[in-house]
Amino acid sequence: MTTTRPVRLGLRANLAQFSLLVAVNALVGGVLGQERNVLPLLAERDFRLTAYTALLTYVLAFGVTKATTNYAAGTLADRFGRKPVLLAGWLVAVPVPLLLIWAPNWGWVVAANVLLGVNQGLTWSTTVIMKIDLAGPARRGLAMGLNEAAGYGAVAVTAATTGYLAARYGLRPAPFLLGACYVVLGLGLTTFAVRETRDHARLEAAQHVPRAGGRHDPLHAGLTAREVFGHTSLREPALSAASQAGMVNNLNDGLAMGLFPILFVAGGLSIGRMGVLTALYPAVWGLGQLVTGPLSDRCGRKGLITAGMLVQAAALALVAAGDGFGLWAAAAVLLGAGTAMVYPTLLAVIGDVAHPAWRARAVGVYRLWRDGGFAVGAVVSGVAADLWGVRGAVWVVAAITAASGLVVAARMYETHPRERAG
């Protein structure tokens, strides 16, 4: 005889399942990290790509598919449940390492990144939604900090490991065998251990009390998909400010993925030292979210986001102006710290403002814009690099990032319930 588990909200009440989802998201991040150091070098050395816009086609393909899949993931998670969407994301990832290992031309790499974008959009979006479901309203910042720390910590560890493997054993196949192991583990855990969380969202929706003045419930629980898209993208000040900041944040990451390895190696660094640098940024980003996520629960969201965007702009300026391992390492730490201030806090803003009944769709819209930043970054940084060189591209993105921080300062209001009550 089977017994139905009681549905309760909160991290402590759902600790085992929440911890499992943290581990699953670490594997999601590892799948992304497998190519972070290797593909820019493959493009130059194996496929003889010289134009930066051509090289960055894999970032463009990844960004477009991940962004659109993020949008679909929220709707699919509401319609079919969270676990089926997560499982589908892992199934799509199965061919990715094999395509990268056997690619005879750059088109195979681009095709692998289309599948990788679908994988990341379905799996990462769904783990975010599931953790928000489990955590309830009180500790969203902490929940998102743990989620993003696991994902980007794994990106960093995998980037460092693949840099070592590439330096010792060559660019293929060794780095991508690690990604294949991640896919097998993620698929197995999702199939046999992950449980559905949609009932937790329904419980929170039933208990939901509109906030004072209704400012954070722009209409009501019964919004259409078009209305959710409009509020999250443009009409609701906090949601729209978060969406543009998320896009610019990932514009930065697209630049880092595509051009930082080339800049560092051209500056005289070995592949091994380049791997350390490109891992340092997501490592600080990942670990820093263990601090910044819960800090936003105590101190509020807006100040952290504004400061984080300006810190990222300063870090990019240091990358563009600097030279040598030490200065670039300092810039990577600063860039990771600024990103850590922003990343989980933006997700917490979405959770604060969106009604539980349409929150999954709002997360999907936000992540559509946020991960669209990869595609925008590929185009902007690729064109700028072809016109003015890699350092010129970094300067352009630094200016865009500073402007985004000013938009947050002007448009976003404080969304955390404790801070508003105070």
Automatic annotation (TrEMBL):
Transmembrane segments: 12-32, 52-73, 85-102, 108-129, 149-167, 173-194, 254-272, 303-321, 327-350, 394-413
This protein's UniProt keywords: Cell membrane, Membrane, Transmembrane, Transmembrane helix, Transport
UniProt main location, coarse: membrane
InterPro entries given in the database record: MFS, MFS_dom, MFS_trans_sf, MFS_Transporters, Sugar_transporter_CS
PROSITE patterns, per the entry: MFS, SUGAR_TRANSPORT_1
Organism: Gandjariella thermophila
GO molecular function annotation: transmembrane transporter activity
Alphabetized SUPFAM superfamilies for the sequence: MFS general substrate transporter (SSF103473)
UniProt cross-references to Pfam families, sorted A to Z: MFS_1 (PF07690)
Name under which the protein is recorded: MFS transporter
